[in-house]
Amino acid sequence: MIRYTGSILLGLLLFLTSFANSRPIVDDLIRLPSDHSSTLAHVFPDVDDDSVGTRWAVLIAGSNGYWNYRHQSDVCHAYHVLKKGGLKDENIIVFMYDDIAFDEENPRPGVIINSPHGHDVYAGVPKDYTGEDVTVNNFLAAILGNKTAITGGSGKVVNSGPNDHIFIFYTDHGGPGVLGMPTFPYLYADELIDTLKQKHASGTYKSLVFYVEACESGSIFEGLLPEGLNIYATTASNAVESSWGTYCPGEDPNVPGEYDTCLGDLYSVSWIEDSEKHNLRTESLKQQYELVKTRTSSNPFYSSHVMQYGDTELKTDMLALYMGTNPANENFTYVDDNSLRPSSSNPVNQRDADLIHFWNKFRKAPEGSSRKKQAEKQFMEAMSHRVHLDNSIKLVGKLLFGIEKGLDVLETVRPTGKPLVDDWNCLKTMVRTFEKHCGSLSQYGMKHIRSIANICNAGITANQVDEASAQACPSLPSGPWSSLHKGFSA
Ligand SMILES: *[C@@H]1O[C@H](CO)[C@@H](O)[C@H](O)[C@H]1NC(C)=O
Ligand SMILES: *[C@@H]1O[C@H](CO)[C@@H](O)[C@H](O)[C@H]1NC(C)=O
User: Fold this and answer.
1) Partner of 322 at 20 to 30 A CA spacing, among 53, 147, 196, 433?
2) pLDDT of residue 474
3) What percent of the chain has pLDDT over 90?
4) Ligand 2 first shell, C-beta below 6 A
5) Where is the Legumain prodomain domain (predicted)?
6) How many CA atoms, within 13 angstroms, populate the side-chain half-sphere of residue 72?
């Protein structure tokens, strides 16, 4: 747990650098809206005007499990911001596994919070798609508005028309070219992009904004999302780095002691807390992008680069066009002077957040209790599955490309603007082939998808990968972290 021992040093560093950074980085386009409010009405038509069409939203948490508390918490919180903004329930579609509020680990049964002193965000959230209905198929069908393709759930879909505005928010674990789901398979970038192209071709929206929190989330759009679809996307991280959980145990401002899990994600709470406070009729997508980018990159050690893709000219749109705005915030327009100044927090890498949970559970459980034993077992299983996956993929690389060249090929990162892989079907076939022998990639193992993509890019055949994986993993691992009990992730 280097993170804890390093925090004193980090605190000192933050103190020393805080003078230099005390002003948020804003460019000259961000001014107090009051500076130019007289021109606003002229430049931006009243977003309450019925002629702008209907606002739709799709909110999805791609995970389950108590150690992933923060993703469903982000989604619940986002729902309330949109609801208070004036969106109707019939236009907000929520996907969440719904196993957090009443998990036995939840210290406040029936309550979910998204920040240390936050209110309950669980009450009132529509349960459109929960449990095993949170699937790639349902998510994509809901975006397309194709009710007949939906299985289970409320059947609510984005039944939008040509003047409508759509907002989509996804939060979970991810990896290069992939977004996690609580069910199998996961969501691959090519399928998501194809769906967005199809939605555009159907002429059923005016513009669409997509916010994505996940590790390597830039890889979902990098070199893949074309301009001209009227889509503006921002992601928590670039194509090659982690995104970060926040409000984690031991963090300052202190998370209530009874919570052994992170309460939010850094990029997600950055936009949600900003939207919750301000008059969104006077704040543009660009202003929010800059604010979120600054907050998400504020910590020198635990930070990621918020990215933007697609039709960036949509940035001048006011947030209210997508999120509505809470009438109670009509006088809160000071975007330069808001609560989003970097706090001295220690965010936790998405991929380590489960370990933090098991570790804190272990640390706090009474000596000799069955709870302590259980936490230790969970921690050890998660660790050993990680080691197994790391070693197996390396061995496959060495078997395919030789001891010297193997790691170079696996770790190759394509230049900015190029998609992760040319042949997505190859990638998915290779993922299944690897998993058949070596066990499920699981949340942690999604990080290795770049290596598997590189194997495809090198022109290796499925037979070769099959043989190499069989050699690397002579027996299929057992246990909850490594079994194939649910299916393949591709
Ligand atoms: C909707 O989904 C069904 C079932 O997958 C499919 O057959 C149909 O073509 C889809 N409709 C449209 C308009 O895409
Ligand atoms: C905003 O300020 C105006 C003028 O001071 C006031 O009349 C109005 O009630 C305020 N709105 C809210 C929601 O507080």
Assistant:
1) 147
2) 93
3) 79
4) 328, 330-331
5) 377-473
6) 31
Cα 60 to Cα 63, 66, 209, 465, 488, distances in angstroms: 9, 16, 14, 34, 21
Residue ID of nearest Cα to ligand 1 atom 12: 146
Cβ–Cβ under 8 Å, residues 88 and 55: no
**What one-letter code names the amino acid at 88?**
K
Asked if 211 and 234 touch (Cβ cutoff 8 Å), the reply is yes
200 labelled catalytic: no
Is the C-beta atom of 201 inside 6 A of ligand 1? no
Question: Can you give the pLDDT at residue 483?
Answer: 59
State whether the beta carbon of 149 lies less than 6 angstroms from ligand 1: yes
Please name the residue that has the structure tokens 């409000």: 247
Which residue owns the Cα nearest ligand 1 atom 2?
149
User: CA 287 to CA 208: how far, in whole Å?
Assistant: 17
Please, what sign has the CA dihedral across residues 230, 180, 126, 485?
positive
Catalytic site residue 305? Answer: no
With residue 56 as reference, give the H or E element that holds it.
strand 55-61
Which residue is it, tokens 């998808």? 449
Interacting residues of 117 by C-beta distance below 8 A, sequence separation 6+ = 253
Answer for the pair 353, 68: CB distance below 8 angstroms, yes or no.
Answer: yes
Task: Summarize pLDDT for 84-138 with one digit per residue, the tens.
Answer: 999 999 999 999 999 999 999 999 999 999 999 999 999 999 999 999 999 999 9
Buried b (16+ CB within 10 A) or exposed e, 309-318: bbbeebbebb
> Which domains can be identified in the chain, with CATH numbers?
36-349 (3.40.50.1460), 365-472 (1.10.132.130)
- Ligand 1 mean position, distance from CA 311 (Å): 28
Instruction: Give the residue with greater pLDDT, 260 vs 301.
Output: 260
Alpha-carbon distance of 10 to 13, in angstroms, equals 5
| Nearest ligand (C-alpha, residue 331) | 2
- Which position among 71, 165, 173, 388 bears the catalytic label? 173
Residue 197, pLDDT above cutoff 70: yes
* CA 147 to ligand 1: nearest atom: 1
Tell me the per-residue pLDDT of 124-143, one tens digit each, with 9 for 90 and over. 999 999 999 999 999 999 99
